[in-house]
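Pasting as-is:
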Amino acid sequence: LDARPERYGPTVIGKYTKGIGQVEGRFCTDDEDPISFSMTVVHRLLERMEEKGINETGAYQPDGRPLNIWNSVGRLDVGTESITDRSKSMKSYVMDIFERYANE
């Protein structure tokens, strides 16, 4: 630890005195991991989109009927904080949800 952080400039000092602006933090218990968090979030998000009718894919279909909510997602980006979260395998698990529910 540096005894004189002021030599790095005001941005570093602010980081240690004011913080990075984070208001809350959540941590998983020992029976959960970041992959289960991401799968739960995607599932809940798409269910809520379906409940509220947020699916505008019908405007782009020739017959005017919207696609299934699980088929209406065009792109999904998954980013994690560290290499230990394994973001590539996390996206594989999340994409498995789409394959599982797409034919319902």
